[in-house]
């Protein structure tokens, strides 16, 4: 017998989203899923026939289109073709995959590493492999959605501590000190706010209360540290993180995700993580591109310096205009608007003037904290940043935000 109640619920969700999108499109406030038809360098794109300055890219190091990375991808296609023979556990592992994983392990100062088909899958697979129904996971309240979804998939008990609040984390750890298995998971750089986790204190607390620590470095590779190696280098730390997770689709201009750590950890993941066992292997071109990108980061350290300089220039200039950039201290620069409509209006005003930036609203961020989230890259020239700042100033005045 058909369950009409559940069918009606599905129909309501479908129709509700259709109505919401239709209204936004009618008001010219829908900015999602916009096709980019051309990419000129790492800072300019063509959207709807218009060349625009890109300030919504995750390619922090400006590596997209780098000749060494492109050449590595092309060579891999010539040698291996466009795919593999299946999943990694069976016929899908190429020597190229193992070379990439060795490169990641060395880059992150780990014994070994494992790669997955996406960063999202990495978090789901690793978390659900390491913990289960009788275990406890403690997460920062602003952790990425993939971390929360991984905890749900694992069936572990999830407790969230206030954002970057080490006293609250310690209180939870102390209260649950009797639990045999405790896993703390934090973002290194928080994707919506651009601030950095207090890693030294997090490590100290995990050691004190005998908890494992997993750090998601999606937004810190190529961004933090003197050579772009990430958050541990940023704080001058060499150990303390048990699971070093990251993506291959942001600073690294490819696709996929990775987890690095001890040989025994990676061995477990290779044989028990369902997201690895039952997912197709990374295509050869993408594996080769990722491997080359890690080498380029180390060979061209000036990119890290330029990114830091560009971020400071952009963020400080916005603050002087009167914008609230929250607690950002990285290349992710949120421009707080508050109301959803104000965020959409600011984005529209920026895009009309030639800057491609995008809005973030609830549920991706808490209600009442809608924002334009801008991102800066090493590929932006000073003149491009100055041009973008002129746009932000005019757009902010137009919508009454500054």
Task: Please write the CATH class name of the largest domain.
Answer: Alpha Beta
CATH architecture of the largest domain: 3-Layer(aba) Sandwich
Strand content: 15-25%
The amount of helix comes to 40-55%
Class derived from helix and strand content:
alpha/beta
What is the approximate shape? globular
Main sheet properties: 7 strands, mixed
Would you identify the CATH H-level superfamily of the largest domain?
Type I PLP-dependent aspartate aminotransferase-like (Major domain)
N-to-C order of helices and strands: HEEEHHHEHEHEHEHEHEEHHHHEHEEEH
Radius of gyration based on Cα positions: 22 Å
Number of domains: 2
Q: Within the CATH hierarchy, at the fold level, what is the topology of the largest domain?
A: Aspartate Aminotransferase, domain 2
Please provide a written account of the structure.
The chain is built from 15 helices and 14 strands. With 402 residues, it is of the alpha/beta class. The protein has two domains: 25-54 and 301-399, Aspartate Aminotransferase, domain 1, CATH 3.90.1150.10; 67-299, Type I PLP-dependent aspartate aminotransferase-like (Major domain) (Aspartate Aminotransferase, domain 2, 3-Layer(aba) Sandwich). Helix 8 links the parallel strand 7 and strand 8. Helix 5 (119-130) runs parallel beside helix 6, helix 7 packs parallel to helix 8 and helix 14 crosses helix 15 (382-399). The protein is globular, with a radius of gyration of 22 Å.
């Amino acid at each position: 017998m058909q369950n009409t109640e559940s069918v009606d619920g599905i129909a309501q969700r479908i129709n509700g989203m259709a109505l919401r999108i239709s209204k936004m499109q009618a008001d010219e406030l829908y900015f999602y899923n916009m096709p980019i038809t051309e990419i000129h360098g790492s800072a300019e794109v063509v959207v709807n026939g218009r060349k625009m300055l890109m300030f919504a890219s995750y390619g922090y190091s400006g590596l997209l289109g780098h000749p060494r990375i492109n050449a590595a991808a092309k060579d891999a296609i010539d040698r291996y073709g466009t795919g593999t023979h299946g999943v990694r556990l069976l016929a899908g592992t190429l020597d190229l995959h193992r070379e990439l994983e060795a490169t990641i392990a060395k880059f992150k100062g780990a014994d070994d590493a494992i790669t997955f088909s996406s960063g999202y899958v990495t978090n789901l697979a690793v978390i659900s492999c390491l913990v289960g129904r009788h275990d406890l996971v403690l997460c920062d309240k602003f952790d990425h959605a993939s971390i929360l979804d991984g905890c749900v998939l694992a069936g572990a008990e999830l407790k969230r501590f206030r954002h970057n609040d080490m006293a609250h984390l310690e209180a939870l750890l102390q209260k649950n000190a009797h639990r045999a298995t405790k896993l703390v998971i934090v973002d290194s750089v928080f994707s919506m706010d651009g601030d950095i986790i207090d890693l030294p204190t997090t490590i100290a607390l995990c050691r004190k209360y005998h908890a494992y620590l997993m750090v998601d470095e999606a937004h810190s590779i190529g961004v933090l540290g003197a050579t772009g190696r990430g958050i541990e280098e940023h704080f001058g730390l060499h150990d303390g993180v048990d699971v070093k997770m990251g993506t291959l689709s942001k600073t690294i201009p490819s696709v996929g995700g990775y987890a690095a750590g001890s040989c025994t950890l990676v061995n477990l993941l290779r044989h028990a993580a369902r997201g690895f066992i039952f997912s197709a292997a990374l295509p050869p071109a993408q594996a080769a591109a990722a491997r080359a990108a890690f080498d380029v980061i180390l060979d061209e350290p000036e990119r890290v310096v330029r990114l830091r300089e560009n971020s400071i220039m952009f963020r400080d200039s916005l603050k002087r205009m009167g914008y609230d950039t929250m607690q950002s201290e990285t290349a992710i620069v949120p421009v707080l608007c508050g109301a959803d409509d104000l965020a959409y209006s600011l984005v529209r005003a920026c895009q009309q003037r030639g800057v491609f930036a995008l809005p973030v609203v609830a549920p991706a961020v808490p209600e009442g904290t809608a924002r334009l989230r801008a991102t800066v890259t090493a590929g932006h020239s000073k003149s491009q940043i100055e041009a973008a700042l002129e746009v932000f100033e005019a757009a902010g005045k137009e919508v009454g935000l500054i």
